[in-house]
Amino acid sequence: MKCYCCLVWIGIGLFFCNTIWAQKSNTDSLVTLGLKADSMMYVYVNKGDLPTSIKYCKQKEAFFFEAKSWDKFIKAINDKAYLYHALDSLDVFKKLIFVNFELADAHLKNNHPQWIRAKEQINSYYYAIGDYKSALEIIKEVIPIKEKIENYEVEVSKSYLNLGTAYNHLKDYENALISFKKSIKERYKEGETGFALGVRLNNIGRTYNSMGELDSALHYLDLAEQLLESIVEGRYKNRKIETYTLKVETYLKKKDFDKAKEYLDLIETFSLSKREKVLWQERLGKYYYEIKEYRQSLLAISKANQLAEELSTRNSPPLKARRVIDQVKVLIDLKQEMQALDVLQSGLRILSPGFKSEDYRENPEIKNLLDKPDALVLLQEKARILNRVYATSENLDDLTSSFDAYLLACEVIKELRRGIVSSESKNVLAERTVSVYEESIASAYQLYEKSKDKKYILTAFELAERNKAQLLLENLNEQEALGYSGIPDSLFNKEKDLRLYLATLMDRAIREERSIENDEQIFRVRQEYGLVNSFLEKTYPRYFQLKYNNEPIGVNEIQQRILNQNTGMIEYFVGDNQIFVFVITEDDVFLDAIEKEGDSINYINRLRNIIKERPGTKDPNKEYDEFEHASKMVFDFYVKKALDKMPDSIRTLIVIPDDQINYIPFEVLISEKPTTKNNYSLKNQSYLFKDYSINYNYSATLLNKVMTKNSAALSSNFIGYAPTFSEDSKKESRSNLGFELSSLTCNNDEVSAIQSLLGGSKRISENATKINFLKEANQYKIIHLATHAFVNQSDSKQNRIFLQEDFLSDVNLYNLELNTELAVLSACNTGSGELLKGEGVMNLARGFMNAGCSSTLMSMWSVDDCTTSDLMVLFYEGIKKGLSKDEALRQAKIVYLNTSKKAKLHPYYWAAFVSFGDMGAIELNSTWSSSIFFFLGLGLLFIVGGIFFFKNRS
Asked: What is the CB neighbour count within 10 angstroms for residue 470?
């Protein structure tokens, strides 16, 4: 019986073994068949027969699916998707890659090569349609996964190359350069070469070309050319052609047409593929355009289009749109504007799937635009042409259509900013798109002049606001979003830790000589920080909503929230051709357009040079005459018309300056020429501040934000810092040459006098340290720094304000968390610095506002040490009386001018300090109440001690 049972079990075992063996054998056979089909697919790929390649790809896909060999099956679909992409079947490609990624996610781990490839195929799709922001997010997700896989350096290098390309398309040039250089380091050790290195050098050259740094572009392209010099034909020929093509573009921008033609001719010596012929014809068209051979240019572009129609790799929507842009430029110069409009409309149809309209008065929806940088170019050109058409036709529909195109272009700029990470690249974008805002405002002004409908002034004002202090506004929004969006503490702390660590690394870069290691750490932390922020944006809608709440404040809101019958606002927008002046009162709004004249800017520069230099170097009479003339000219050109529109009740001016106007304190402007010469005294001069309190702001939107923020109740009034510097040299000024800091005579007395007036604390000499400042500054309503400062006119990251044996940099300031009502920067040049289009002056005061200060007092030039101390004490006397900050400063200047000796009446001594931000009075805590509590406590201590003493005696 036992033997029988054993035989039964053996039989059952053999049956199952046979079944399993048969299944395994069948699976192996299916995999073998699949691999054969795979080999055949590549045979036809190399022949260029893509339809037959797809047939074999489908065969291997079926074999691998039946074999349940998921990694090979997923690879087969990846291959099929690639082939359809190569055939320009974008819809099929899209369907395949998203389905395939779902399969990869279900069957493979995320570090499997085929999972990674499936993910990267999605990235390829976003590239193809011009959605570079989504492409960027995919690459950011893939890189950390690849970096954990052993011996995966080549793949990591490719991802950094793709990352740089995405950043480049998004106009984030700083991160593009870092990514390309990181790609090189991941793949090549020092001294090594390789043909793939040429690709990376080409991309670095391309980025510098896009930035307009043409000499740097040529440097990297020369390196690439040397590396690829030995190539004539063969596998890497296209790399050399790419280098030559980029050199053509760069030399064209440098207007070196002979060199550009030389490289065009070199490209033609190769046996060119169809793709390379398209590239060559495109550059040939640009070359003819630059030398004004417009017919030849159109012919070359037309040939490029014909060739591209036969070749999907040069016929994607973004590439087609760029040829449209080239064609439009030629047609405009040929005065064929109606034809140019038709071509422009075709370009917008290319970039917006589903948009079919041939009517140039219609525009696609912004959400459907694929390649937004190229869409921006098309929309601006369209608006310009329609504006010129209106000049001839006088048909208001043409002007309205022009304005509509401009409005959409401004929306595109807003979307582009969202896709850019680095502040440097945002500044480049602002510099390049200021013309869009200028032309949009000009178009609105034309419509207002024609219709007298003030809605166009309201829209023009909002457009002006969109181009002001956006970096500062975005930083404040991000901080607010973190605090009010319901983010868990763990994520909140992670974001904060990364931000502080990044600040530490950047501070190190400022203090020490830059190192590759530190730059790489900065890049890594930036990437990690970017991933955290992307996760927060996707997961917490409230965070996204608050962070990107950059909608500008409207005129109606300004009138309700900021202005009253005694307060008016003047806001400037300075374009390349016109200056727009907005005047807003409690009940009305005006817009004036001033044609830009060379002398207007010259007068600003002349006046600035006069008032910022210590007097006495010239003949006093000549010096005074120059001041009087320049001051009156600036007043007449920039201010007089605005004041004429304001009611007599106005006593406070809020000024939103722009461009060079940032450099002039309006207090020194005179409205009438005096009868008495060579006397800067108040009674002899009709200074503007004699009749008005004047304060300044980066933008009306920002002013509204700081005025409406919730302020913490701080118990202490004041803290002042007065460090001591070298005793070897004493200067009258608080300026410094480089970082050689002279001893200050009056700063200690300044802080001590203010502390006696307001109470609070003071930190003198060795106690005025950075450590103390960072630890305690957020406990006080007023922070006062009487010290030295250094401002870099070309790199704001180098700005610094000095404390005892150390300094606060812009990086430190942007990561502080203050809730201070007023920061007084009683040092030199704290209100001057690098001037950026739209953004304004990148000064130290911005850092304090970003850190949470509602208002700042800052200096426009190098100030006199002891005069500054006198002025500051007078200012704080007004603050103690309960005056608004701007009125306290005004009264201080009036008292100063009425009591000073003639030798120190020159504006150099008193006009440097201006006020920015919320000018509301500061509600000071009573210094008496503190003393009373102190003495009451002391008395109570004596009473308790007495009771205890007598109790013990008894």
From this structure: 26
pLDDT at residue number 284: 94
Q: What pLDDT score does 236 carry? A: 65
The predicted structure's pLDDT at residue 889:
96
Alpha helices by DSSP H, listed for 394-486, are 396-419, 423-451, 455-466, 470-484
**Which amino acid is it at 854?**
S
The pLDDT of residue 336 is 94
Distance CA 589, CA 458 (A): 8
Task: State the Cα–Cα distance between residues 954 and 600, nearest whole angstrom.
Answer: 90
Strand partners, 85: none
Residues 6+ apart with CB under 8 A from 378: 321, 324, 325, 328, 344, 347, 348, 351
Q: Which of 293, 700, 638 is nearest to 464 (CA)?
A: 700
> pLDDT under 70 in the chain at which residues?
1-27, 88, 189-194, 230-236, 311-315, 421, 512-516, 617-618, 711-712, 726-740, 927-954
305, 350 contact by CB (below 8 A): no
- Beta-bridge partners for 670: 687
| Residue-level pLDDT at 711 | 66
CB environment 93-127: b (16+ within 10 A), e (fewer): bbebbeebbebbeeebeeebebbbbbbbbbbbbbb
In angstroms, the Cα distances linking 298 to 194, 246, 333, 782 are: 38, 21, 11, 65
d(CA 399, CA 445): 11
Residue 416 exposed, middle or buried by CB count within 10 Å (0-12, 13-18, 19+): buried
Query: Is the Cβ–Cβ distance between 811 and 801 less than 8 Å?
Result: no
Cα 140 from Cα 2, distance rounded (Å): 66
Say whether 623 sits in a helix, a strand or coil: helix
Question: Residue 132's pLDDT is what?
Answer: 80
Strands of 693-696's sheet, edge to edge? 589-595, 578-584, 567-574, 652-656, 693-696, 913-917, 855-859, 822-826, 780-786, 716-722, 761-764
